[in-house]
Amino acid sequence: MAFMVGGIGLSHKGACSKRRTLVGMTQQALHGDGWAVGVDGTRRWGTLGAAGLFLTTRENDTTLLLVQHRANWTNFGGTWGIPGGAVEPGESAVEAALRETQEETGVDPANVRVSDHLVTARAELSHVLVRVPLAPEDMVLAAPVTAAAERGASLLDAVRSHKITHPETGYPLTITLSGQLCWETPDDSVEEWTYTTVLGVCDAPLELFPSAESADLAWCPLDEVAELPLIPPFRDALPGLRERMEGAEQD
Predict the structure, then answer these.
(1) pTM of the prediction?
(2) Secondary structure percentages of the chain, helix, strand, coil, to 5
(3) Can you give the pLDDT at residue 1?
(4) How many domains does one find in the chain?
(5) Do 108 and 180 lie in a common domain?
(6) Is the same domain home to 119 and 139?
(7) What is the pLDDT, as a whole number, of residue 72?
């Protein structure tokens, strides 16, 4: 199935507590999901950095790129880019890119041949915002949120509308992507954020299954990708990625 976005033909495959407790838990709770805050105040997703998959294939002598239309609720929602997300502890950037792509598109890593990877963005950090799970005694503080959820509100909407902070630390209540209530806790142990783009190839346009993070997924002719409303960091990196991809093909 194909459709047009601004004259571009996109091909689809498939359906589309207390202070001492919080501080003591910070290192134990450090994981990928959360904001990294730059020295200029800019927030980037992934406390340990992020990675994405630049996955191409060939069809009818045309190079196609797997592109993702980001859901409106996500960072840079409404723009197009490549699937990816936060790096988790113990993961390499390549592993993170393949895992995130499978979660967001259904593409099995076994069907991807990785040819290269490179850091396409980096930033000096002030701190990261670690998500520390609520201690049992803190659940009473979250009662307005849990009550709203029991009445049918989404947990995300309930957290956003009530804006609860810890009475001693001032840390705000938030939730993880999996729906766990947490305190958003600053940690200055991470000094740099990076985004790594992994170059991969598959034998044919694979069937795609969008997750909640994707408004849409498609295989787009590589020569037409720049015409899409792209996420700004990806737009900046695209020429260099194409050059690196072409170099990998010649090796």
Answers:
(1) 0.84
(2) 30, 35, 35
(3) 38
(4) 2
(5) no
(6) no
(7) 87
* Whether residue 150 is found in the same domain as residue 206: no
Model pLDDT for residues 189-227, shown as the tens digit of each residue: 999 999 999 999 999 999 999 988 889 999 999 999 999
* Residue 90 placed within a domain: yes
pLDDT of res. 73 = 84
| Regions of the chain with pLDDT less than 70 | 1-30, 250-251
Q: Does residue 112 sit in the same domain as residue 59?
A: yes
Amino acid at 16: C
- Do 135 and 122 lie in a common domain? no
Q: What is the CATH number of the domain that holds 91?
A: 3.90.79.10
